[in-house]
Amino acid sequence: MNTHKKFINVEDEPITTRPRKVLVLGCDTLGYDVDEALGNAQWHIKYAHNQQEASTIIGNGDEYFTSIYILKNTDSQLLDDLQELIVMHPEVAWLAVVDPLSIQVERIRRFVHQYFFAFLTLPLDPIKTQHLLEAAREMTLLSALSPSKFRNEYRNQDMGMVGNSPVMQRLYQSIYRIAQVDAPVLITGESGTGKELVARAIHEQSPRRHGPFNAINCGALPPGLIQSELFGHEKGAFTGAGQRKFGIIESTSGGTLFLDEIGDLPLDMQVNLLRFLENHHVFRLGSLKETKVDVRVLAASHVNLEEAIKLDKFREDLYHRLNVLQLTPPPLRERSEDIEEIANFFFKKYRTEKASKVKGFSRESLLLMRQYAWPGNIRELINRIRRAMVMCDQRLIRPEDLGLERRQRSSRSQVTLEQARDLAEESAIRASLARNKYQVQHSACELDVSRATLYRLIEKHGIDRQLEKNAQ
Ligand SMILES: Nc1ncnc2c1ncn2[C@@H]1O[C@H](COP(=O)(O)OP(=O)(O)OP(=O)(O)O)[C@@H](O)[C@H]1O
What we know:
Strand 1 (about 20-25), helix 1 and strand 2 (about 45-50) form a beta-alpha-beta unit. The chain is of the alpha/beta class. The strands form 5 sheets. The chain has a 5-stranded parallel sheet, with helices on both faces. Helix 15 (about 340-350) packs across helix 17 (about 375-390). It has helices at about 30-35, 50-60, 75-90, 105-115, 125-145, 145-150, 155-160, 165-180, 195-205, 225-230, 250, 265-280, 305-310, 315-320, 340-350, 365-370, 375-390, 400, 410, 415-435, 440-445, 450-460, 465-470; strands at about 20-25, 45-50, 65-70, 95-100, 120, 185-190, 215, 230-235, 245, 255-260, 280-285, 290, 295-300, 325, 360, 395. The protein has 4 domains: about 5-145, 3-Layer(aba) Sandwich (Rossmann fold), CATH 3.40.50; about 155-235 and about 245-325, P-loop containing nucleotide triphosphate hydrolases (Rossmann fold); about 330-415, Helicase, Ruva Protein, domain 3 (Orthogonal Bundle); about 415-470, Orthogonal Bundle (Arc Repressor Mutant, subunit A), CATH 1.10.10. The longest helix is centred in the N-terminal third of the chain and has 19 residues, at about 125-145. Adenosine-5'-triphosphate binds near residues 161, 192 and 196. It comes from Vreelandella arcis. One of its GO terms (biological process) is regulation of DNA-templated transcription.
C-alpha cells in the first residue's frame, strides 16, 4: 500500500478547492437516502458494496477521505471487519448512519463512539448531513497537512527490526495498524525474512502487549501430542496424563499466539483450530465443558498455502479465516540498501561475544553483500557474519571470510557506476602496492595521492599489506 499517494499536495491547490468526494459503504437499500440528502450539494458519491471494495477505493488514493457507513446490521463479524477497515485507514474520517433503534444497542453505541467522527440517524436530515460531511472533510484535510508526522510514527526501533528502506517503512506502518485490531493475521514470505519478528512486533505494538506472546512451530510438534499441546488435557484423559495440563492456547490467554509453519498442522487439528477461531472456546482433551479463551492468533507459513489447498493438504475455510489480514516481510535482496545497516548491527551484536581485533567490513565485502541474492535472507546473513568474525584474521572482514566469492561480482549483470569506480580503485591500489613492494610512500607517489589518502584507501578496501606481501 502506498501511503504517500494518500497525502494531498497542499502546495498545488488551496484546501477549499479540493473536490468533495464521499464513499458510502454498508446497506445498499439505504444508499438512496444519502443520494437524496446530498442531492443538490457538490458531493461526488461513490458506493462500495463491501469492506474489500472500500479498501481498494481508498487505497487507490482517489481522495475518498470522507466516508459514510450505514450501520444497520449488528452482526459482530461485520463490526469486526469494519473495525479493521477503519483502523487500517486512519486518514479517512468516518460518519455513521444508524437507525434510531440500533443506536440504543450498547455495542453499537460504543462502536460508533470509538471509531466514528460523528453519527447521523435515519431519516437523514440533508442540512445536518452536509454540515457534518463538510466538517469531516476539513478534519481530514488538516491531518493531510502534516504527512511527515504521520509517517514518522513508524520507527524500526519500536518494531525491534533493523532496516529503514521504503519497503520496510511500509511494513512497519502495516504492522502498527494491524496491531490495533484483533483479527487473525497470516504472515507469509521466504524463510529467514523475519516472519516471527513481525509477529512479535504486532504483539508489542498491540493493546495485548502486557499479555503473553507464545510461539509454537506446528511442524516440530509430534503428531500424537499436538492436540494436547494446543488444547490441553484433563487428568486421566489418556495413559500417562497424570494431571491436568493447560494447552498453549489457554496459556496465552490475554495475549498473542504465533503458530509458525501452520501449513504443517495435520488436517484434523486444522478443524479444531478453525473451531477455536470461530468461537474462541477450547475443549481440553477429556473435558466435558468448553473454556472461553481470549487469544489473538497470528500464523506464518513459508509454503504457499493456496497450493497446499489444491493438494488437499490445507483447509480452504481455515485459510480464509486466518487470512483476514496478510503481511509479507520482503526478501533481503529486495532491500539491499538495508544490508550495510543490518550487517553492522549484527557485527556489533556479536563482537561483544569475545574480544576481537576485527573492526568491521571491507568495502568489497559490503559491495558483494549488496550484490548477493541471499536465498536464506537475514538468517543467512547472520550466519555468514558470525562465521566471518571467527575466521577473519585481519582488521576488516573480507569477502572470503563471508564465503562470498569475488566471481559473484561477474554473475550480476548490473553494477552501479559507484560500484565500478570502487572496484577499479581497489584494483589499481593493489596493483601499485604489489609493484612497489608494499611501500606506501612509493605507491602514493605513483598513484599521485598523499600518503594519508593512500592509508585511508587501504583501510577502506580492507587491504592487508603484510598478508599480501607474504603471499607473494
Ligand atoms: N528486520 C530484521 N532486523 C533484524 N533481525 C532480523 C530482521 N528480520 C529477521 N531478523 C533475524 O533473522 C532471523 C530469522 O528471522 P525469523 O526467524 O523471524 O524468520 P522467519 O521468516 O520466521 O523464518 P522461517 O520461515 O525459517 O521460520 C532471526 O534471528 C531474526 O532475529
